[in-house]
Amino acid sequence: MEYIMTGYIVLESILAVLVISINLLVCATVYLHKEARSLTNCLIACLAVADLGVGALGIPFSVMLSLRRTLCFYTCLFMACFPLVTAQFSVLVMLVIAVNTHLKTRLPSRYQVLVNKRRLLAAVFLCWLASVLAGFTPLMGWNRLRSFGEDQGNRSTLTSLGQSERSIIGQHLPYGGFLSKVYVRYRKNQTYAQTHASHLGPCSLEAVVNPEYLVYFHFLAGTLLPLAAALVLYTDLFFCQVRGQLPSPRETHAPCRPAKRRENRTARTLLLMLALFSLCSLPRHLTSAVRLFRPTCSPPSWLPPLTALLSHLNSLAGPLLYAARRREFGAAMLSVLGRGFSRGRPSNKVYPRV
Predict the structure, then answer these.
(1) Which residues sit opposite 168 in a β-bridge?
(2) Are 187 and 58 in contact (CB under 8 A)?
(3) Taking a C-beta distance cutoff of 8 angstroms, is the pair 157, 144 a contact?
(4) Which three-class secondary structure state does DSSP give residue 57?
(5) Residues 45, 51: Cα–Cα separation, whole Å
(6) Residue range 294-347, pLDDT digits in tens
(7) Does an H or E element contain 279, and which?
């Protein structure tokens, strides 16, 4: 087990550096190249911002959760909820990208009227707000605080202090780090663990977050439904393309407009990104479902680190897939990278359009 955890920490550290570097490069490309500031690329940059959060905080928090260090319950709960926020935001932004691509292909004449940067930014802001509310729901009370204290045997420690030596204040208020639920009147011979024993324990995702929340709320409602809606939009898009290429004279309604080759390729790229995200995140959701419906079934020690690593791998593979499929955007990324390594003033060079 020690070798597994060591290898997991090393791989996660390398992945975090690569995720931050690649997604910073994506954001810099959209910022520096005016030709790259299409609405789709701006949404990809918003997705890269979420992936930056994964690389900067999500991966370190996941490593801390896997180590099962003894921490305060609400500190551990925050570290468990932050990756849920970034994952939820990524799913909702992918749904916005699917809606934008669908409108651009199906309604080309009205697209400029219906969609603009201000409305897309408003949609992204709503996605971020919904992600924060959904991801931090366990902090609002849907958590395992009661079982966390009971499972770690910390109640017996409090009993040993004596009822006359302690008083409970703010029993149902969240612990903020500056106000303990247990106020000890005589602290001369008490350690930190004894004083704060009611909310200290081994920190892990299973210890602080309810499996019902992970399966029913985060997976089924927050992940599966948006992904299914995006898949329906892409399916309708490609079905429209087939009907546009093979129109029937007996049809009473006007045939769908065939998508342009460039729009077609973009839609296929975005669909591949959606499929890649689903494949990377599905094992972790299945593990949560097994933990909920088969609580007596203990997974092997290597399975939780592997599922966490796969879920983080999407933050690196997604931007690389988009840059590889969109050659103009990939060339723009390479030019930004070359400018970063070049010395002196940049030359007056015409960069590729996106």
Answers:
(1) 182
(2) no
(3) no
(4) helix
(5) 10
(6) 888 888 888 888 999 999 999 999 999 999 988 889 888 988 888 776 644 444
(7) helix 261-293
